[in-house]
């Protein structure tokens, strides 16, 4: 199950740095996760200082 980034995202980029699949990129207003590339490993969620990343 892929992860998604909620509106609590502050665009710090720490999640993108941790993603082994490079599934996270800067969107228009915050970072976004490509669900087709996400490995569902949870590394991004563990790194997020705002707890803005949740499982779909």
Outline:
The protein is of the alpha+beta class and 56 residues long.
Please estimate the helix content. Answer: 10-25%
Chain-averaged pLDDT: 97
- Provide the spatial order of strands within the biggest beta sheet: 1-4
Q: Over all CA atoms, what is the radius of gyration?
A: 9 Å
Shape: globular
**Distance between the first and last residues' Cα:** 6 Å
The main pleated sheet reads as: 2 strands, antiparallel
Number of β-strand runs:
4
Count of alpha/pi helices: 2
Order of helices and strands: EHEEHE
Estimated structural class: alpha+beta
Residue stretches low in confidence (pLDDT < 50, at least 5 long) are none
Write the layout of secondary structure elements.
Layout: E1 3-5, H1 14-18, E2 24-26, E3 31-33, H2 43-47, E4 53-55
Antiparallel strand pairs: 1-4, 2-3
What does this structure look like?
This protein has 56 residues and is of the alpha+beta class. The protein has helices at residues 14-18, 43-47; strands at residues 3-5, 24-26, 31-33, 53-55. The longest helix is centred in the N-terminal third of the chain and has 5 residues, at 14-18. The protein starts with a strand and ends with a strand.
């Amino acid at each position: 199950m892929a992860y998604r980034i909620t509106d609590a995202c502050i665009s710090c980029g720490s999640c993108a740095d941790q993603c082994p699949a490079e599934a996270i990129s800067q969107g228009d207003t915050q970072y976004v996760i490509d669900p087709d590339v996400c490995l569902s490993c949870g590394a991004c969620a563990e790194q997020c200082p705002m707890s803005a990343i949740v499982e779909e």
